[in-house]
Amino acid sequence: MKTHLFNVLSSFVLGLAFINMPSNFVVTHAHAACDDTAGPAVNWENCRKRNLIMDGFDFSGSNFTRSDLSASDLRNSNFSKAIFVKTNLVRASLAGSSAENSNFEGVTGSRTDFSKSNFQNSSFAKAEISRSNFSESNLQDSDMSKADFSRVDFSNANLKGVNLSFSNISRANLINIELDKNLYLKGAYMFLTLIEDLDLSGIKGIEQWQINMACGNENTMLPDGLTRPHEWPCQLEAN
Q: Quick one: which of 145, 142, 155 has its CA closest to 115?
């Protein structure tokens, strides 16, 4: 009898609580997004997806925030307008992919292959990407500020309109890049950065201390007011 009375009272109290809930209160159920099938607008936020083999998939508009995609093969895929905020891409490959208008802010990527891809108008701000490959990629008008791109290969990439202000591009390879006057290098750390044969005469924000530590040659053209050092550091290292 006591047990029955307790159950009745408990149900009554819960019923009152439900009636007094705010009208905008919505009861939601957990959604196992990590089990969702790969495709456009998939939500794999905070998911562990290491060692995937998904060459040529359509991930347009997808959310990979804080997910682990390390060592995954994602080549030749569509990542247009995708979100990779603080995603782990260490040793992953996005080579040959289309990822324009995407958000890679705070992404982590060491020895990651971003080559021959389209990242136009994307953001890599505050990313930590070292020893990675962006060669022959389109990065035009992208925000790559306050990030770590040390030892990154940018050779033959399109860096027109790219903002690299206050980024670490030490020992990065900028040989044969496409550039224009809107490439912004203010405060960029350029220790042994390869700038041989580049026309930097119209580049914004670059200062003498950056030139002094970079690696140029007699064909490197500098903005007015800046001069070539007596000897470039790379020439000293080679001796």
A: 155
3-class DSSP state of 4: helix
**Domains of the chain, first to last:** 123-239 (2.160.20.80)
Give backbone dihedrals phi and psi of 235, rounded to 5 degrees, phi first: -65, -35
Q: Residue 134: count other Cβ atoms within 10 Å of its Cβ.
A: 29
Cα–Cα distance measured from residue 9 to residue 85, given in angstroms and rounded to the nearest whole number: 49
Rounded average pLDDT over 95-124: 98
CA distances (Å), 146 to each of 34, 63, 174, 185, in order? Answer: 31, 23, 18, 11
Residue range 29-84, pLDDT digits in tens: 334 489 999 999 999 999 999 999 999 999 999 999 999 999 999 999 999 999 99
CA distance 91 to 219: 35
